[in-house]
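Example 527, ligand zinc ion.
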Amino acid sequence: MHYWSSKPDKRFRPAGGGTLDQELQLPALSPRVEAEVVARMLSRDREAWADQAARVGHCSKPVRLRGRTLAVDTRTGQVRTAYASDWEESGVAFIRCGNRRESVCVACSREYASDTWHLIRAGAAGGDKGVPTSVAEHPMVFATLTAPSFGLVHSAKKPGTVGSTRCRPRRTKQLCPHGRPTWCMTAHGQDDPIAGQPLCHECYDYDGHVVWQYHASELWHRFRTALGRDLARRLAIPATRLDEVLSIQFAKVAEYQLRGIIHFHALLRLDGPKDVGAFAPPPVHVSARMLAEAFRAAARAVTITAAPAGDDQEARILRFGRQVDARPVSRTAREGLDTQDLSPEQVAGYIAKYASKSADDITPTMRDTPHVKAIKDTVARLALACATSVTLREWPQDSKGRRPYETLGKWEHMLGFPGHFATKSRRYSTTRAAIRSERRRFQIARSNRDHADQLQDLAGTDPGQDADEETTLVVGQWEYIGMGWVTDGDAALATALAVWSRDHRREQAAARRHLKTETASAAESEE
Ligand SMILES: [Zn+2]
Ligand SMILES: [Zn+2]
Ligand SMILES: [Zn+2]
Protein backbone atom coordinates (compact mmCIF):
# COMPACT_ATOMS: atom_id res chain seq x y z
CA MET A 1 0.00 0.00 0.00
CA HIS A 2 1.54 3.35 -1.01
CA TYR A 3 0.33 6.57 0.45
CA TRP A 4 2.58 9.33 -0.63
CA SER A 5 5.33 9.37 -3.15
CA SER A 6 5.28 12.34 -5.49
CA LYS A 7 5.74 14.99 -2.85
CA PRO A 8 7.40 13.83 0.34
CA ASP A 9 5.95 15.52 3.37
CA LYS A 10 8.73 16.73 5.59
CA ARG A 11 6.47 16.56 8.62
CA PHE A 12 6.25 12.82 8.21
CA ARG A 13 9.96 12.59 8.64
CA PRO A 14 11.63 9.46 9.93
CA ALA A 15 12.94 9.72 13.47
CA GLY A 16 16.64 10.41 13.71
CA GLY A 17 17.29 11.96 10.31
CA GLY A 18 17.04 11.07 6.67
CA THR A 19 14.32 12.24 4.35
CA LEU A 20 11.44 10.17 3.23
CA ASP A 21 12.17 10.29 -0.47
CA GLN A 22 10.72 6.89 -1.20
CA GLU A 23 7.21 5.59 -0.81
CA LEU A 24 6.35 4.55 2.68
CA GLN A 25 5.44 0.88 2.63
CA LEU A 26 2.59 -0.15 4.85
CA PRO A 27 1.82 -3.80 5.44
CA ALA A 28 -1.49 -5.28 4.32
CA LEU A 29 -4.13 -3.57 6.45
CA SER A 30 -7.73 -4.40 7.15
CA PRO A 31 -10.26 -2.03 5.49
CA ARG A 32 -10.99 -0.46 8.88
CA VAL A 33 -7.34 0.31 9.64
CA GLU A 34 -6.80 1.48 6.08
CA ALA A 35 -9.70 3.91 6.51
CA GLU A 36 -8.10 5.17 9.73
CA VAL A 37 -4.79 5.78 7.97
CA VAL A 38 -6.54 7.71 5.19
CA ALA A 39 -8.51 9.68 7.77
CA ARG A 40 -5.27 10.62 9.55
CA MET A 41 -3.63 11.73 6.32
CA LEU A 42 -6.60 13.96 5.52
CA SER A 43 -7.13 15.22 9.06
CA ARG A 44 -6.72 18.85 9.98
CA ASP A 45 -4.19 18.07 12.72
CA ARG A 46 -2.10 15.65 10.66
CA GLU A 47 1.00 17.81 10.98
CA ALA A 48 0.64 18.12 14.72
CA TRP A 49 0.18 14.37 14.98
CA ALA A 50 3.23 13.66 12.80
CA ASP A 51 5.21 16.00 14.96
CA GLN A 52 4.20 14.24 18.15
CA ALA A 53 4.88 10.84 16.58
CA ALA A 54 8.36 11.97 15.55
CA ARG A 55 9.09 13.24 19.05
CA VAL A 56 8.51 9.77 20.51
CA GLY A 57 10.68 8.30 17.78
CA HIS A 58 7.64 6.59 16.15
CA CYS A 59 7.15 4.33 19.12
CA SER A 60 4.51 1.70 18.34
CA LYS A 61 2.80 1.86 21.70
CA PRO A 62 3.44 5.14 23.53
CA VAL A 63 1.96 5.94 26.92
CA ARG A 64 -0.74 8.63 26.84
CA LEU A 65 -0.79 11.13 29.67
CA ARG A 66 -2.63 14.30 30.57
CA GLY A 67 -1.32 16.95 32.91
CA ARG A 68 1.52 19.38 33.37
CA THR A 69 5.05 19.79 34.60
CA LEU A 70 5.64 22.79 36.85
CA ALA A 71 8.96 24.46 37.50
CA VAL A 72 9.17 26.17 40.88
CA ASP A 73 11.89 28.71 41.57
CA THR A 74 12.78 27.95 45.17
CA ARG A 75 14.33 31.39 45.76
CA THR A 76 11.37 33.46 44.62
CA GLY A 77 8.56 30.93 44.94
CA GLN A 78 7.60 31.68 41.36
CA VAL A 79 5.79 28.84 39.60
CA ARG A 80 5.65 28.44 35.87
CA THR A 81 4.31 25.71 33.65
CA ALA A 82 7.24 24.07 31.92
CA TYR A 83 5.07 21.89 29.75
CA ALA A 84 1.40 20.94 29.60
CA SER A 85 -0.44 18.42 27.51
CA ASP A 86 -2.97 21.20 26.77
CA TRP A 87 -0.31 22.76 24.59
CA GLU A 88 -0.65 19.88 22.16
CA GLU A 89 -3.38 20.00 19.53
CA SER A 90 -4.42 16.53 20.62
CA GLY A 91 -4.57 17.63 24.28
CA VAL A 92 -2.56 14.54 25.17
CA ALA A 93 1.12 13.97 25.85
CA PHE A 94 2.93 10.87 24.65
CA ILE A 95 6.03 9.18 26.04
CA ARG A 96 7.89 6.23 24.56
CA CYS A 97 7.03 2.71 25.74
CA GLY A 98 10.76 1.98 26.16
CA ASN A 99 10.39 -1.75 25.41
CA ARG A 100 13.64 -3.50 24.53
CA ARG A 101 12.03 -6.15 22.32
CA GLU A 102 11.88 -5.70 18.58
CA SER A 103 8.67 -7.70 18.30
CA VAL A 104 6.94 -5.22 20.64
CA CYS A 105 8.32 -1.87 19.46
CA VAL A 106 10.71 -1.38 16.55
CA ALA A 107 11.55 2.19 17.57
CA CYS A 108 12.24 1.64 21.27
CA SER A 109 14.11 -1.64 20.73
CA ARG A 110 16.40 0.22 18.33
CA GLU A 111 17.12 2.79 20.95
CA TYR A 112 17.81 0.04 23.49
CA ALA A 113 20.08 -1.80 21.06
CA SER A 114 21.92 1.40 20.27
CA ASP A 115 22.46 2.14 23.98
CA THR A 116 23.71 -1.43 24.42
CA TRP A 117 26.12 -0.98 21.52
CA HIS A 118 27.61 2.18 23.02
CA LEU A 119 27.82 0.60 26.45
CA ILE A 120 29.63 -2.51 25.19
CA ARG A 121 31.92 -0.67 22.79
CA ALA A 122 32.95 1.82 25.47
CA GLY A 123 34.05 -1.02 27.74
CA ALA A 124 36.05 -2.73 24.99
CA ALA A 125 37.64 0.20 23.16
CA GLY A 126 37.46 3.04 25.69
CA GLY A 127 37.67 6.70 24.74
CA ASP A 128 33.96 7.17 25.35
CA LYS A 129 31.49 7.38 28.26
CA GLY A 130 34.22 8.07 30.78
CA VAL A 131 36.18 4.91 29.97
CA PRO A 132 39.90 5.49 29.24
CA THR A 133 41.37 4.23 25.94
CA SER A 134 43.86 2.17 27.95
CA VAL A 135 41.15 -0.53 28.53
CA ALA A 136 41.70 -1.62 24.94
CA GLU A 137 45.10 -2.96 26.03
CA HIS A 138 43.59 -5.21 28.75
CA PRO A 139 43.24 -8.92 27.99
CA MET A 140 39.76 -9.41 26.51
CA VAL A 141 37.85 -12.30 24.98
CA PHE A 142 34.42 -12.69 23.43
CA ALA A 143 33.17 -16.04 24.65
CA THR A 144 30.16 -18.28 24.07
CA LEU A 145 28.75 -20.77 26.56
CA THR A 146 26.33 -23.19 24.97
CA ALA A 147 23.66 -25.50 26.32
CA PRO A 148 24.18 -29.26 26.07
CA SER A 149 22.07 -31.39 23.74
CA PHE A 150 18.72 -32.74 24.94
CA GLY A 151 17.96 -34.64 21.77
CA LEU A 152 18.50 -34.45 18.02
CA VAL A 153 16.98 -31.40 16.33
CA HIS A 154 16.75 -30.23 12.73
CA SER A 155 19.35 -27.61 12.04
CA ALA A 156 19.62 -24.80 9.53
CA LYS A 157 23.23 -24.20 8.56
CA LYS A 158 24.34 -20.59 8.46
CA PRO A 159 25.33 -19.38 5.01
CA GLY A 160 29.07 -19.70 4.57
CA THR A 161 29.42 -22.74 6.85
CA VAL A 162 31.94 -25.25 5.57
CA GLY A 163 30.91 -28.83 4.86
CA SER A 164 27.56 -30.29 3.95
CA THR A 165 24.56 -28.03 4.36
CA ARG A 166 22.37 -31.07 4.87
CA CYS A 167 20.60 -31.22 8.22
CA ARG A 168 21.83 -34.54 9.65
CA PRO A 169 23.46 -36.73 7.03
CA ARG A 170 24.19 -40.22 8.41
CA ARG A 171 25.72 -43.19 6.63
CA THR A 172 23.99 -45.76 8.83
CA LYS A 173 20.27 -45.17 8.78
CA GLN A 174 19.00 -45.97 12.25
CA LEU A 175 15.50 -45.54 13.59
CA CYS A 176 14.83 -44.27 17.12
CA PRO A 177 12.89 -46.48 19.61
CA HIS A 178 9.71 -44.78 18.35
CA GLY A 179 10.42 -45.77 14.76
CA ARG A 180 11.43 -42.29 13.58
CA PRO A 181 14.57 -41.55 11.51
CA THR A 182 17.66 -40.24 13.33
CA TRP A 183 18.92 -38.65 10.10
CA CYS A 184 17.71 -35.87 7.80
CA MET A 185 19.11 -35.24 4.34
CA THR A 186 17.33 -31.92 3.71
CA ALA A 187 19.16 -28.57 3.63
CA HIS A 188 16.97 -26.27 5.74
CA GLY A 189 16.94 -22.50 5.20
CA GLN A 190 17.26 -20.18 8.22
CA ASP A 191 13.53 -19.44 8.14
CA ASP A 192 12.41 -23.03 7.62
CA PRO A 193 9.93 -23.56 10.50
CA ILE A 194 11.27 -27.09 11.02
CA ALA A 195 14.73 -25.83 12.06
CA GLY A 196 15.12 -26.29 15.82
CA GLN A 197 12.38 -28.93 16.02
CA PRO A 198 13.31 -32.36 17.43
CA LEU A 199 13.60 -35.32 15.09
CA CYS A 200 11.49 -37.20 17.61
CA HIS A 201 9.37 -35.41 20.24
CA GLU A 202 9.22 -38.55 22.34
CA CYS A 203 13.00 -39.00 22.46
CA TYR A 204 13.58 -35.33 23.31
CA ASP A 205 14.39 -34.80 27.00
CA TYR A 206 12.01 -31.92 27.79
CA ASP A 207 12.46 -32.25 31.57
CA GLY A 208 16.24 -32.00 31.14
CA HIS A 209 15.84 -28.99 28.83
CA VAL A 210 13.65 -27.06 31.31
CA VAL A 211 15.72 -28.02 34.38
CA TRP A 212 18.89 -26.81 32.62
CA GLN A 213 17.30 -23.57 31.42
CA TYR A 214 15.98 -22.82 34.91
CA HIS A 215 19.51 -23.21 36.34
CA ALA A 216 21.40 -21.49 33.51
CA SER A 217 22.01 -18.22 35.39
CA GLU A 218 23.21 -20.12 38.47
CA LEU A 219 25.55 -22.08 36.21
CA TRP A 220 26.92 -18.76 34.92
CA HIS A 221 27.53 -17.52 38.50
CA ARG A 222 29.46 -20.67 39.33
CA PHE A 223 31.35 -20.35 36.09
CA ARG A 224 32.57 -16.90 37.14
CA THR A 225 33.86 -18.29 40.42
CA ALA A 226 35.51 -21.19 38.61
CA LEU A 227 37.13 -18.78 36.15
CA GLY A 228 38.66 -16.80 39.02
CA ARG A 229 40.00 -19.98 40.61
CA ASP A 230 41.49 -21.15 37.34
CA LEU A 231 43.20 -17.80 36.73
CA ALA A 232 44.59 -17.85 40.27
CA ARG A 233 46.02 -21.31 39.66
CA ARG A 234 47.69 -20.15 36.45
CA LEU A 235 49.16 -17.17 38.28
CA ALA A 236 50.28 -19.48 41.11
CA ILE A 237 48.44 -17.52 43.83
CA PRO A 238 45.77 -18.69 46.28
CA ALA A 239 42.24 -18.17 44.88
CA THR A 240 41.34 -16.11 47.96
CA ARG A 241 44.00 -13.56 47.04
CA LEU A 242 43.02 -13.08 43.39
CA ASP A 243 41.19 -9.81 44.25
CA GLU A 244 44.51 -8.34 45.28
CA VAL A 245 45.89 -8.92 41.80
CA LEU A 246 43.07 -8.57 39.29
CA SER A 247 39.31 -8.41 38.75
CA ILE A 248 37.12 -9.91 36.05
CA GLN A 249 34.75 -7.50 34.28
CA PHE A 250 32.10 -8.69 31.88
CA ALA A 251 29.04 -7.87 29.83
CA LYS A 252 26.84 -10.77 28.84
CA VAL A 253 23.67 -11.51 26.97
CA ALA A 254 21.44 -14.56 26.64
CA GLU A 255 20.44 -15.60 23.12
CA TYR A 256 17.66 -18.07 22.35
CA GLN A 257 18.60 -20.78 19.91
CA LEU A 258 16.08 -22.14 17.43
CA ARG A 259 15.66 -25.17 19.72
CA GLY A 260 14.30 -22.84 22.42
CA ILE A 261 17.30 -22.92 24.73
CA ILE A 262 19.67 -20.10 25.57
CA HIS A 263 23.36 -19.59 24.96
CA PHE A 264 25.38 -16.96 26.79
CA HIS A 265 27.63 -14.60 24.88
CA ALA A 266 30.00 -12.63 27.05
CA LEU A 267 32.75 -10.12 26.71
CA LEU A 268 35.26 -10.77 29.48
CA ARG A 269 37.91 -8.24 30.39
CA LEU A 270 40.67 -8.43 32.99
CA ASP A 271 41.28 -5.31 35.08
CA GLY A 272 43.57 -4.56 37.97
CA PRO A 273 42.40 -5.07 41.55
CA LYS A 274 39.13 -3.30 42.44
CA ASP A 275 40.53 -1.18 45.24
CA VAL A 276 43.00 0.50 42.87
CA GLY A 277 40.04 2.08 41.07
CA ALA A 278 37.98 1.48 37.96
CA PHE A 279 39.73 0.50 34.72
CA ALA A 280 43.13 -0.07 36.35
CA PRO A 281 45.47 -2.19 34.21
CA PRO A 282 45.95 -5.86 35.17
CA PRO A 283 49.42 -7.30 35.85
CA VAL A 284 51.57 -7.38 32.72
CA HIS A 285 51.97 -11.15 32.66
CA VAL A 286 48.28 -11.94 32.08
CA SER A 287 47.26 -12.17 28.43
CA ALA A 288 44.12 -12.65 26.34
CA ARG A 289 45.41 -16.13 25.55
CA MET A 290 45.66 -17.02 29.21
CA LEU A 291 42.13 -15.68 29.74
CA ALA A 292 40.81 -17.74 26.81
CA GLU A 293 42.45 -20.91 28.14
CA ALA A 294 41.13 -20.29 31.66
CA PHE A 295 37.69 -19.65 30.18
CA ARG A 296 37.66 -22.99 28.34
CA ALA A 297 38.85 -24.90 31.37
CA ALA A 298 36.32 -23.26 33.71
CA ALA A 299 33.46 -23.72 31.24
CA ARG A 300 34.19 -27.44 31.03
CA ALA A 301 34.65 -27.95 34.74
CA VAL A 302 31.65 -26.15 36.22
CA THR A 303 28.63 -28.20 37.33
CA ILE A 304 25.46 -27.88 39.40
CA THR A 305 23.51 -30.64 41.05
CA ALA A 306 19.89 -29.81 40.31
CA ALA A 307 17.15 -31.11 42.57
CA PRO A 308 14.98 -33.84 41.04
CA ALA A 309 12.10 -32.33 39.09
CA GLY A 310 9.46 -34.29 41.00
CA ASP A 311 9.21 -37.40 43.17
CA ASP A 312 9.68 -39.83 40.29
CA GLN A 313 12.98 -38.31 39.14
CA GLU A 314 16.66 -38.29 40.06
CA ALA A 315 18.89 -35.31 40.77
CA ARG A 316 20.73 -34.11 37.66
CA ILE A 317 24.29 -32.92 37.15
CA LEU A 318 24.10 -29.87 34.90
CA ARG A 319 26.92 -28.43 32.85
CA PHE A 320 27.51 -26.28 29.76
CA GLY A 321 27.58 -27.80 26.29
CA ARG A 322 30.85 -29.10 24.89
CA GLN A 323 31.04 -26.33 22.32
CA VAL A 324 32.84 -23.49 24.04
CA ASP A 325 34.32 -20.65 22.09
CA ALA A 326 36.58 -17.79 23.18
CA ARG A 327 38.13 -15.33 20.75
CA PRO A 328 40.45 -12.46 21.67
CA VAL A 329 39.11 -8.95 21.16
CA SER A 330 41.51 -6.24 20.11
CA ARG A 331 41.32 -2.70 18.84
CA THR A 332 43.58 -3.52 15.95
CA ALA A 333 41.22 -6.18 14.59
CA ARG A 334 39.31 -4.76 11.67
CA GLU A 335 36.24 -6.07 9.96
CA GLY A 336 36.90 -7.81 6.68
CA LEU A 337 40.53 -8.55 7.46
CA ASP A 338 41.63 -12.11 7.92
CA THR A 339 42.30 -12.29 11.65
CA GLN A 340 41.17 -14.50 14.50
CA ASP A 341 40.58 -11.46 16.68
CA LEU A 342 37.32 -9.55 16.89
CA SER A 343 37.07 -5.77 17.02
CA PRO A 344 35.21 -3.99 19.85
CA GLU A 345 32.64 -2.80 17.29
CA GLN A 346 31.91 -6.35 16.10
CA VAL A 347 31.39 -7.59 19.64
CA ALA A 348 29.20 -4.58 20.49
CA GLY A 349 27.13 -5.36 17.38
CA TYR A 350 26.58 -9.02 18.35
CA ILE A 351 25.59 -8.24 21.91
CA ALA A 352 23.29 -5.35 20.90
CA LYS A 353 21.51 -7.58 18.39
CA TYR A 354 20.91 -10.40 20.87
CA ALA A 355 19.81 -7.96 23.58
CA SER A 356 16.73 -6.86 21.63
CA LYS A 357 15.47 -10.41 21.11
CA SER A 358 13.43 -12.63 23.38
CA ALA A 359 11.84 -16.05 23.48
CA ASP A 360 9.06 -14.77 21.20
CA ASP A 361 11.56 -13.63 18.60
CA ILE A 362 13.38 -16.90 17.97
CA THR A 363 11.66 -16.74 14.64
CA PRO A 364 8.17 -15.41 14.03
CA THR A 365 7.14 -18.76 12.63
CA MET A 366 8.36 -20.66 15.68
CA ARG A 367 6.17 -19.10 18.35
CA ASP A 368 3.53 -21.79 18.33
CA THR A 369 5.41 -24.82 17.09
CA PRO A 370 4.74 -28.18 18.81
CA HIS A 371 8.28 -27.96 20.26
CA VAL A 372 7.78 -24.56 21.94
CA LYS A 373 4.39 -25.73 23.15
CA ALA A 374 5.96 -28.87 24.61
CA ILE A 375 8.59 -26.77 26.45
CA LYS A 376 5.88 -24.52 27.91
CA ASP A 377 3.79 -27.52 28.92
CA THR A 378 6.82 -29.02 30.64
CA VAL A 379 7.44 -25.78 32.55
CA ALA A 380 3.82 -25.78 33.74
CA ARG A 381 3.87 -29.48 34.62
CA LEU A 382 7.16 -29.31 36.56
CA ALA A 383 6.07 -26.17 38.42
CA LEU A 384 2.95 -27.99 39.56
CA ALA A 385 4.74 -31.25 40.39
CA CYS A 386 7.34 -29.37 42.40
CA ALA A 387 4.73 -27.59 44.47
CA THR A 388 3.45 -30.94 45.71
CA SER A 389 6.69 -32.95 45.79
CA VAL A 390 7.67 -34.62 49.07
CA THR A 391 11.34 -34.91 48.04
CA LEU A 392 11.58 -31.22 47.26
CA ARG A 393 10.05 -30.17 50.56
CA GLU A 394 13.09 -31.68 52.23
CA TRP A 395 15.62 -30.51 49.63
CA PRO A 396 17.99 -27.75 50.83
CA GLN A 397 16.76 -24.24 50.08
CA ASP A 398 18.82 -21.86 47.98
CA SER A 399 20.67 -18.81 49.31
CA LYS A 400 17.46 -16.75 49.06
CA GLY A 401 15.54 -19.32 51.11
CA ARG A 402 13.54 -20.65 48.16
CA ARG A 403 12.62 -24.25 47.51
CA PRO A 404 13.81 -25.79 44.23
CA TYR A 405 11.65 -24.75 41.23
CA GLU A 406 9.55 -22.52 43.46
CA THR A 407 9.47 -19.72 40.87
CA LEU A 408 9.57 -21.86 37.70
CA GLY A 409 5.87 -21.31 36.91
CA LYS A 410 6.47 -17.58 36.49
CA TRP A 411 8.89 -18.11 33.62
CA GLU A 412 6.75 -19.99 31.13
CA HIS A 413 6.91 -17.12 28.61
CA MET A 414 10.74 -17.28 28.86
CA LEU A 415 10.62 -21.06 28.29
CA GLY A 416 11.84 -21.57 31.86
CA PHE A 417 14.74 -19.09 31.83
CA PRO A 418 14.44 -16.85 34.91
CA GLY A 419 17.56 -14.73 34.41
CA HIS A 420 18.23 -11.30 33.05
CA PHE A 421 18.82 -11.03 29.35
CA ALA A 422 21.67 -8.61 29.45
CA THR A 423 23.85 -8.06 32.49
CA LYS A 424 27.24 -6.57 33.17
CA SER A 425 29.61 -6.18 36.05
CA ARG A 426 29.45 -2.81 37.77
CA ARG A 427 32.81 -1.63 36.50
CA TYR A 428 32.49 -2.85 32.93
CA SER A 429 31.74 0.63 31.54
CA THR A 430 28.97 3.16 32.00
CA THR A 431 25.30 2.53 32.88
CA ARG A 432 22.16 2.67 30.79
CA ALA A 433 20.83 5.48 32.99
CA ALA A 434 23.94 7.54 32.27
CA ILE A 435 23.52 7.01 28.52
CA ARG A 436 19.86 7.99 28.73
CA SER A 437 20.54 11.21 30.59
CA GLU A 438 23.37 12.05 28.20
CA ARG A 439 20.96 11.61 25.30
CA ARG A 440 18.41 13.82 27.00
CA ARG A 441 20.94 16.57 27.50
CA PHE A 442 21.91 16.29 23.86
CA GLN A 443 18.28 16.46 22.72
CA ILE A 444 17.61 19.47 24.91
CA ALA A 445 20.67 21.23 23.55
CA ARG A 446 19.59 20.50 20.00
CA SER A 447 16.00 21.44 20.50
CA ASN A 448 15.03 25.07 20.03
CA ARG A 449 11.39 24.39 20.50
CA ASP A 450 10.27 25.59 23.85
CA HIS A 451 8.61 22.45 25.04
CA ALA A 452 9.75 19.51 22.93
CA ASP A 453 12.44 18.70 25.48
CA GLN A 454 10.08 18.20 28.38
CA LEU A 455 8.40 15.40 26.51
CA GLN A 456 11.50 13.31 26.90
CA ASP A 457 10.76 12.83 30.53
CA LEU A 458 7.51 14.35 31.60
CA ALA A 459 7.70 13.69 35.29
CA GLY A 460 11.47 13.74 35.36
CA THR A 461 13.97 16.29 36.40
CA ASP A 462 14.63 18.29 33.26
CA PRO A 463 13.22 21.72 33.88
CA GLY A 464 14.23 23.09 30.50
CA GLN A 465 17.20 24.67 28.87
CA ASP A 466 17.87 27.67 30.96
CA ALA A 467 16.66 26.72 34.41
CA ASP A 468 19.16 26.57 37.21
CA GLU A 469 19.20 23.03 38.50
CA GLU A 470 20.01 24.05 42.06
CA THR A 471 17.16 26.48 42.55
CA THR A 472 14.48 24.90 40.38
CA LEU A 473 12.14 22.30 41.73
CA VAL A 474 10.30 20.34 39.10
CA VAL A 475 6.90 18.93 39.90
CA GLY A 476 5.02 16.66 37.54
CA GLN A 477 1.23 16.34 37.81
CA TRP A 478 0.35 13.60 35.39
CA GLU A 479 -2.60 11.37 34.90
CA TYR A 480 -2.34 8.11 32.99
CA ILE A 481 -4.87 7.86 30.19
CA GLY A 482 -3.86 4.77 28.30
CA MET A 483 -1.30 2.84 26.34
CA GLY A 484 -0.81 3.02 22.61
CA TRP A 485 -2.03 5.24 19.78
CA VAL A 486 -5.71 6.13 19.80
CA THR A 487 -6.40 4.30 16.54
CA ASP A 488 -4.82 1.24 14.94
CA GLY A 489 -4.28 3.40 11.85
CA ASP A 490 -2.03 5.76 13.82
CA ALA A 491 -0.14 2.77 15.23
CA ALA A 492 0.34 1.36 11.70
CA LEU A 493 1.68 4.70 10.45
CA ALA A 494 4.05 5.12 13.39
CA THR A 495 5.37 1.57 13.06
CA ALA A 496 5.83 1.91 9.28
CA LEU A 497 7.88 5.07 9.86
CA ALA A 498 9.97 3.30 12.52
CA VAL A 499 10.62 0.37 10.17
CA TRP A 500 11.53 2.76 7.36
CA SER A 501 13.93 4.54 9.62
CA ARG A 502 15.53 1.29 10.83
CA ASP A 503 16.00 -0.05 7.28
CA HIS A 504 17.34 3.29 6.11
CA ARG A 505 19.98 3.25 8.85
CA ARG A 506 20.93 -0.34 8.04
CA GLU A 507 21.39 0.55 4.39
CA GLN A 508 23.53 3.52 5.31
CA ALA A 509 25.66 1.37 7.64
CA ALA A 510 26.08 -1.29 4.93
CA ALA A 511 27.09 1.37 2.42
CA ARG A 512 29.65 2.77 4.90
CA ARG A 513 31.10 -0.70 5.48
CA HIS A 514 31.28 -1.30 1.74
CA LEU A 515 33.10 1.98 1.23
CA LYS A 516 35.53 1.16 4.07
CA THR A 517 36.38 -2.26 2.61
CA GLU A 518 36.85 -0.73 -0.83
CA THR A 519 39.14 1.94 0.57
CA ALA A 520 41.08 -0.65 2.57
CA SER A 521 41.59 -2.97 -0.40
CA ALA A 522 42.51 -0.02 -2.62
CA ALA A 523 45.10 1.04 -0.04
CA GLU A 524 46.46 -2.49 0.15
CA SER A 525 46.81 -2.87 -3.60
CA GLU A 526 48.73 0.41 -3.70
CA GLU A 527 51.21 -0.82 -1.14
ZN1 LIG B 1 8.07 2.08 22.03
ZN1 LIG C 1 16.24 -31.74 9.12
ZN1 LIG D 1 12.00 -41.37 19.38
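Summary: Confidence is low (pLDDT under 50) at residues 1-11, 447-457, 459-466.
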